[in-house]
Amino acid sequence: MLEKLWPFGRSRVRKAVEEALEKAFQDVGEVLEPLSELSEHEDHYLLRVEVPGLGPENLEVRLEGDQLVIEGEKREEERTKHLAEIVYGRIYRAYLLPKDAKKEGIEARLAKGVLEVRIPREKRPEEPPVRIPIQES
């Protein structure tokens, strides 16, 4: 039936579909977003980011304005594989800092595949809400 619909024959169709699927699911150029959690404590925030298989030499933590950026790369070693489920590629994630976060004194620590970033908080007086009048046109 398929040969009637597709003039190139079954094996060519199958090969074309397999190549298209392989291309679609390749991780080349894909940016990986690591899983993370942000917890609030009295005097600091704690950001935990899962980065298994990466060391400090493969990671960068930096401030860009009001964002904390975590970037790195998980590189694949060339070897013969019999099973390939590990994902490799560029890791990038940017987090908007809370309003009461201090930019000075941020510390990063890596242990057992989890990057922990401690972000100090500063005490600020609570700002009352500001009402904005609505004009009728």
Automatic annotation (TrEMBL):
Domain annotation SHSP: ranges = 26-137
Which family does the entry's similarity section mention? Belongs to the small heat shock protein (HSP20) family.
Provide the GO biological process annotations: response to heat
Tell me which SUPFAM superfamilies the record gives. HSP20-like chaperones (SSF49764)
UniProt KW Kinase keyword: no
Tell me where on the tree of life, at the top rank, the source sits. Bacteria
Q: What is this protein called?
A: Heat-shock protein Hsp20
Keyword annotations from UniProtKB, A to Z = Stress response
